[in-house]
């Protein structure tokens, strides 16, 4: 018998293998100062494109005031205990009611964190006889939830309706054998590539196949739709989504999440979500803060307009300079380049040290080998000057990448880590 930890010491995983070169700079970086487009990294001011504060609420004076007042009134502990036992309040119910009304559902239920909430939702909804069909690019929280499923699951190619059709047919045939039902899971907005999920197309199969649809709209809630109610509103099919999920960590710049749907189903989830039943209730700071954030999201459409003005300026500017930003149709702005991981590291170092620009870098295994994805998240707080500065910097780094500058800079690291892109 071997030591359980033996393989961990010799194989730290696809990302962990880079830890000695990356930690503290490329991964686990420390951003300091007030949240916003201009922060500090390692003592230097940087232009930040790496926080999901879409509407600019994170450091808004009204939000800071509401959070401070909630902390002064309730402290950080109240209420104590799980909601089912001793952590339930009228204010939790009020936020749920307002969220349900906003996303046009009968009822909603608050979740402490989006990640654990989604894992638990999937676990609670399906039995071993049920079949799950989900998009291959779904977020890790969905993947982990699916992994808990003891029954069969089918993955369809990302946003590929032909692939979806084949897999929903397979699911139906199997469900007829097991006597189970079918749960389809997708995202309203895919956070890496910025594409809206093809919800309307998926729903065109619903009557024939009788599935239920769960949508994770973390990157759509607050940004898309006439009122900001999300991707379902944007596509005109919100009423056909069986369970609508979103987190507060993006447009609401807070902590927590919610799931909304028919009252009967939400009531079932209240009594069966293990990640909520056996966890401390969402503290009042975040509940009262959530009410203020939702109020501003609903009553200040100028924030959403400023966000989209910035999105269009950034994305149009990148396209006009010949950059590949895929087919994003949301705020998420990916820039796809070709190169190795060491080249990507050298490029990001150049951006931070010489251009003062901080953004997220995504490489294999999240995207295919040989590709580099630089992800920018425009917010309502960015300025046109920020955008122009970034466009100029991107033109400069592309020339260096294509000219082999970054490969030469990290040739030793390339050799050390092997030929893997």
TrEMBL record:
Annotated ranges, domain Aminotransferase class I/classII large: 45-394
One molecular function GO term is: pyridoxal phosphate binding
Biological or metabolic pathway of the protein: Lipid metabolism
InterPro entries recorded for this chain?
A: Aminotrans_II_pyridoxalP_BS, Aminotransferase_I/II_large, AON_synthase_class-II, PyrdxlP-dep_Trfase, PyrdxlP-dep_Trfase_major, PyrdxlP-dep_Trfase_small
- According to its UniProt record, which cofactors does this protein need? pyridoxal 5'-phosphate
Q: Does the keyword Magnesium apply?
A: no
**SUPFAM superfamilies, per this entry?**
PLP-dependent transferases
Spell out the Gene3D superfamilies in the cross-references.
Aspartate Aminotransferase, domain 1, Type I PLP-dependent aspartate aminotransferase-like (Major domain)
Ordered alphabetically, the record's keywords are: Aminotransferase, Pyridoxal phosphate, Transferase
Q: Which family does it belong to?
A: Belongs to the class-II pyridoxal-phosphate-dependent aminotransferase family.
Q: Which PANTHER family match?
A: CLASS II AMINOTRANSFERASE/8-AMINO-7-OXONONANOATE SYNTHASE
What's this protein's name?
Answer: 8-amino-7-oxononanoate synthase
Report the source organism: Capnocytophaga gingivalis
